[in-house]
Amino acid sequence: VLFRSKGFIEHLVGGALVTSTPLTFPRKYYGGTVSYLTCRGPATCRAGGTVYTHRGITYNQFVFTMAEVSGKWSSPSLLGPSMPTSGVNDTAITELACPDQTQCVVAGITGTNELFASSISAEKWAPVHLLGAGLLKQGYTQLQVTTLAGQGSLSCANISTCALVINSSALAAGATATFAVSLYRGVWLAPSELMKTTTNLPGPADVSPSSLSCTTNTCQLYVVVPTIVDTSPSVTNAAQVYELTSTRGVWPRIPALHS
Question: Residue 169: pLDDT band by 50, 70, 90 thresholds?
Answer without folding.
Answer: low
